[in-house]
Amino acid sequence: MRFPPATALTAHPAPDGRGLRESGERRSVNRRLLLVLLAALLLRMASLPMNEFERVALPGLAGVVALVVAALHSRRVPVRTLHLTTLLGCWVYLLSHLWFVLFRVPEPLQLATLAGVGPWVPVLLAAHLWMLGRQGSLPLNVVGLGASAALLSVFVAGPAGALASPVTGALTQMLLASLVLLGGQHSAVVRTLGLMRRDLLGDGLPDGRDALTGLPDRFSVQDALAREFRRRPEGLGVAVIELDQLPALQAQRGQGFTERLIAHVARVTLGALRDEDLLGRLNPDQLVVVLRAPDARAARAACERLRVRVASRPLEGVNPTVSIGLAFQDLHGDATELLRDAQDTLRGLEDGRNRVVVGGVGALDGAGQPLLA
């Protein structure tokens, strides 16, 4: 049976709408958070007494936050630039406030005044990671902690400073707590990245799992297929799924992209299967599904839906397509023959890709309901 030809892999040079939508959502979240910060600053200025420093600095900081909120409405300014602007504005405020506490506030009032600003230093250090990531936050961490430590050193070395004074002890504890916080954040991020890398690349996976997709490998699929064939061969089908034009894509986009594409197609396929179906990786460019169906027609309908589902899930501007060779148990003598028939059917495809081809005797006899939603 012949099916109408369809386009295989199509690359779209323009960015997909999902990336633009995510960028817009990110700006919206940042805008809401900064509006909360701006409201808190305005409430602070309106309801609580301010010293001579705060009467000048708080309106300035509120102005910076308001400008960033306004800039978030325009896509011309990168979000990262706005994050840096916000963080630098907060650091200027905090360091200036620390300077004011250490060198302008009378000693009996220093500790009480520091209590209002000191806890925000660790919070600001933590915000570096939230906004800039692990690598991008490191320079600002060094600058912020270094400047705070420099102010404390100048205070201790000055004529009014004392190593045993309460404000020196409080600032020292604040800096030590900040270091512990940064170390804990770094450790948590490294651990999280390691877990993600293990899940994506397969490090530490049990034997019999493919390293890229985490799916059962060829030998595990063959063993499972043999067990199912011995248990009940009736209604058993094997579908070999091959990504179309994979060598051309690898030459055009690189091996890293094709590996992401294979993992993407594996996730899409897995999401369409029933719990009792088995998906595995047969070869570098092939997946395999072991399924049960009332007859070959129902199995083919299921594979057609799989093919359409994959084609409707683009990755990085590329619409992947697959060709599927299906073998349904009819006169096959064993599981090995069933799998080989599915592979031979796929290899014999001569009239275009992006289609389902059924092999075996009596492949489309009978009728039944499709397997997959």
From TrEMBL:
<feature type="transmembrane region" description="Helical">
    <location>
        <begin position="170"/>
        <end position="190"/>
    </location>
</feature>
<dbReference type="InterPro" id="IPR029787">
    <property type="entry name" value="Nucleotide_cyclase"/>
</dbReference>
<dbReference type="InterPro" id="IPR043128">
    <property type="entry name" value="Rev_trsase/Diguanyl_cyclase"/>
</dbReference>
<feature type="transmembrane region" description="Helical">
    <location>
        <begin position="142"/>
        <end position="164"/>
    </location>
</feature>
<keyword id="KW-0812">Transmembrane</keyword>
<feature type="region of interest" description="Disordered">
    <location>
        <begin position="1"/>
        <end position="24"/>
    </location>
</feature>
<keyword id="KW-1133">Transmembrane helix</keyword>
<feature type="compositionally biased region" description="Low complexity">
    <location>
        <begin position="1"/>
        <end position="14"/>
    </location>
</feature>
<keyword id="KW-0472">Membrane</keyword>
<dbReference type="Pfam" id="PF00990">
    <property type="entry name" value="GGDEF"/>
</dbReference>
<protein>
    <recommendedName>
        <fullName>GGDEF domain-containing protein</fullName>
    </recommendedName>
</protein>
<feature type="transmembrane region" description="Helical">
    <location>
        <begin position="84"/>
        <end position="103"/>
    </location>
</feature>
<dbReference type="InterPro" id="IPR050706">
    <property type="entry name" value="Cyclic-di-GMP_PDE-like"/>
</dbReference>
<feature type="transmembrane region" description="Helical">
    <location>
        <begin position="56"/>
        <end position="72"/>
    </location>
</feature>
<feature type="transmembrane region" description="Helical">
    <location>
        <begin position="109"/>
        <end position="130"/>
    </location>
</feature>
<dbReference type="InterPro" id="IPR000160">
    <property type="entry name" value="GGDEF_dom"/>
</dbReference>
<feature type="domain" description="GGDEF">
    <location>
        <begin position="234"/>
        <end position="361"/>
    </location>
</feature>
<feature type="transmembrane region" description="Helical">
    <location>
        <begin position="33"/>
        <end position="50"/>
    </location>
</feature>
